[in-house]
Amino acid sequence: MALAQPERRGPQVLNIGEVLAQLSDDFPAMTASKIRFLEEKGLINPKRTPAGYRQYAESDVERLRFVLALQRDQYLPLKVIKDYLDAIDRGERPENLPPGVTVSPRIVSDELAAELHGRARALSEEQLRTESGASVPLLQSLLDFGLISHVNGKFDEHSLQVARACVQLESHGLEPRHLRPFQAAADREFGLVERAVAPLLSRKDAASQSRAAEAAREISELCLTLHRALVQDRISRMES
């Protein structure tokens, strides 16, 4: 009797519900509407059946993980993330990736999943001190002045970025008590961003919520660019 030949299987194909199931643990707020929105923006390009149904490959899921991780952890606008993906698709390593984010020259499912897994870290005070180089008194001052915060004793990546910056500023004689205007400015800028995206936020559908989040990131980036340009202008006048 002839031995049965093992069944040959092609690449796994997923429907949108199965994609959501794979992403739900790391990105519980993900919806089908947001996946379609990201497709509209050119960040993923799933194949379609003759009837028009989307078919997602594992590589599409990993691209989504990459996009969502950079949005969640780095607050990057989608157009910046798309530039990274375009570079990867050309076989290049993207320039100017945020600190701590690495990708292989090509998006390979297992490699990229491993690199992005656990990007949203919860840091203990000891870990925060070790990774930022901040002293105990400096961290306490940052907490006292509201520049960093914790939830049940755990700090996030944003607190780490603030602490690292403040360590460097301290070496220039700038202490946390001098930095309160930054917190006030951040609150004012957030108010501007919130006002700008209010019309989108008032709509309750997932696509509008996604567009509001993307617009907020883009406006925030533009505000930072404006702030940097204004400060550099003042510095150039001082040097002239």
Automatic annotation (TrEMBL):
Classification via PROSITE patterns: HTH_MERR_2 (PS50937)
UniProt KW DNA-binding keyword: yes
GO MF entries: DNA binding; DNA-binding transcription factor activity
Keywords per UniProt: DNA-binding
A Pfam match: MerR_1
All residue ranges annotated as the HTH merR-type domain in the record: 35-87
Superkingdom of source: Bacteria
Classification via PANTHER family: HTH MERR-TYPE DOMAIN-CONTAINING PROTEIN, REDOX-CYCLING DRUG-SENSING TRANSCRIPTIONAL ACTIVATOR SOXR
Protein name (database record): MerR HTH family regulatory protein
